[in-house]
Amino acid sequence: MHPAPSVIVFTTLSGLGFGLLMFLGLGFPAVTGWVAFVFFAIAYALAVGGLMASTFHLGHPERAMKAFTQWRSSWLSREGWCAVIALLVMAPYGAGLVFLGETYTALGLIGALFSLLTVFTTSMIYTQLKTIPRWNMKLTPAMFLSFSIAGGALLAGQVNAAMILLAIAALVQLAYWKQGDEAFANSGTDMGTATGLGSRGTVRAFEPPHTGTNYLLREFVHVVGRKHAAKLRVISFVLAFVLPILILLISPHHFGALIAVLSHLAGIATSRWLFFAQAEHVVGLYYGKR
Amino acid sequence: MTQLPQSTDRKMGLVIDLDTCVGCHACVISCKGWNTENYGAPLSDQDAYGSDPSGTFLNRVHSFEVQPEQGHAQLIHFPKSCLHCEDAPCVTVCPTGASYKRVEDGIVLVNESDCIGCGLCAWSCPYGARELDATEGVMKKCTLCVDRIYNENLEEVDRVPSCVRTCPAGARHFGDLGDPNSDVSKLVEERGGMDLMPEQGTKPVNKYLPPRPKDTIEEQIDILAPLLAPVAEEPQGFMGWLDKALDKLPGGNA
Q: Where are its TM segments located (chain A) (predicted)?
């Protein structure tokens, strides 16, 4: 799959933002006044900034409101609803903490739930696609959720929880890579089933339909950069999990935490780039490519 | 509405004969020609006369080589367009309801004025049947020439999809695959029509007819020899009478 920067920025930032919102909604840290304002400002900037970025890849962003209509069937529509509900519910909850010093616990809990649901619905947009076996796995939502919760804990300054949650996210990441590498072969789809000619012999793509490229190849058959995948996995794993955990162990203070957050963000963005770049769409089979 | 209908009254679709297709790409051109100037936004090209041309097509012809365990490899031309699936994943993923399947004939269409161009339907299609138009920013796909098949301004013979009307080899057939007595259903039955990627669970309406078994070449040095034998050794009829009459003339018989 083509790793569109808008979608990588969106899923990385909003995942982190909604993770932080979830912790704020649950009352961790229990802050009020200006400190609460800063926390909520960061969470909203990440969540809303990510959502804005996601509209950049639309052909007609001016019609984006129509995407709220099909929540019965479409995960993309459900994601829109969950995000808007989470942001709307967390606003009065945050305002209570910042301006009144009041904690509306019920609002916080609902906001936390919808923050988590937003991340889950985002992950289901990818998970539902049978056409991309590497995404069509139960580990995909597990990965999105564990990343978001661990990142949220890190941003919320929950040092002990963050270390444990980062370790869990790291394990999920490893499991995702392992299972993902076998997913295409296990999907049962190959050039034989794609053409229906598999029972007759070995099928080979002889001539593509056209000499140039097309939308399908640009969008779904991204082979450039996959050759560095192994190195990028190491880089992303160290930045997203190993370094932040070490920093939290050694220096769990403001400056250390800032470095840990930036390192985590860079690592998750790299992992997300790989999530797209390594994903192989079955349509590539018609072109003899993966 | 992006929920799929429980069932459709008819299942209009194509039957594509991989035995007969000669890979001429006439269907590709006629499809582009008809659909760029009729239903919906035109099918744009980018850098059409430059060094890196590309464009939107609703129908493309691939060519595959099949190498059996024994014998010669076979070249198979493979036209591919929307299969108008019964369980079309492209319909249910659509967040706006732009993508829909019609109850009356099962045709999968895009309401372009509702399409936000998110591309998710193209991601969900295993067949590569949908292409986002680079100029218009909306999703394009085969409409089964919905503006031809019911169009009473056209001659009856033309009320079929453009690709079917054009195919010089007769490799494309159009009809109701939900009716077991239709010509296309009988053809599918007779020739063992197949689904593409059945494991994806899309239940495609369009069917592909597999290539027929090829003749085996027998032990013969020159396969044209039988054709080179004299066709008529003794003239018959008027020519025979003329031949004999001329023979009887003096100095005739050589």
A: 7-28, 34-59, 80-100, 106-127, 232-250, 256-275
Q: Is B223 a domain residue? A: no
State the CATH number of the domain containing residue B46. 3.30.70.20
Domain-located, residue B110: yes
Residues of A in contact with B193 (CB under 8 A): none
Q: Which domain holds residue B30?
A: 12-209
The CA–CA distances, whole Å, from B122 to A220, A285, B9, B193 equal: 9, 15, 26, 25
Distance from CA of B183 to the nearest CA of A (A): 22
Domain count, chain B: 1
Give the CATH number of the domain where residue A128 resides: 1.20.1630.10
B220 domain residue, yes or no: no
Nearest-neighbour CA in chain A from B14: distance (Å): 16
- Strand-pair category, B54-55 with B45-46: antiparallel
CA angle, residues B39, B45, B49, in degrees to nearest 5: 145
Domain that holds residue A249: 5-287
> Shortest CB distance from A208 goes to which of B62, B68, B98?
B62
Examine residue A29 and say whether the peptide bond preceding it is cis (omega within 30 degrees of 0): yes
Distance of CA B184 to the CA centre of its chain: 13
ipTM for the whole complex:
0.92
Q: What is the pLDDT along chain A (290 residues), one digit of tens a residue?
A: 988 888 898 899 999 999 999 999 999 999 999 999 999 999 999 999 888 888 888 999 999 999 999 999 999 999 999 999 999 999 999 999 999 989 999 999 999 999 999 999 999 999 999 999 999 999 999 999 999 999 999 999 999 999 999 999 999 999 999 999 999 999 999 999 999 999 999 999 999 999 889 999 999 987 766 778 889 999 999 999 999 999 999 987 888 889 999 999 999 999 999 999 999 999 999 998 87
Total structural domains within chain A: 1
Nearest to A202 among B67, B196, B197 (CB): B67
Does residue B228 belong to any structural domain of this protein? no
